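DEPOSITED CHAIN:
***
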Amino acid sequence: MTRVLPGRCGTCRHFDNDSAKLEAVFPGFAIMGSGFSSVRDGDGLCAVHDVYLSNRSGCDWFESRSKSS
């Protein structure tokens, strides 16, 4: 049985895939050519779990970016 997640990280308000932020968190990241390239794709950082992951990942902490604050 496959678990259904409420949404994907790429559309979650806790997810940040800004290139400048990733380069600040991971010094030398741009040197590897991944800061802006397709190698990184839409991957980014989760502010809830403090991990780097795919924008296609998901978890129970999902909150839509369009949700009113």
User: Anything to note?
Assistant: Helices lie at 19-25. Strands lie at 15-16, 44-46, 51-53.
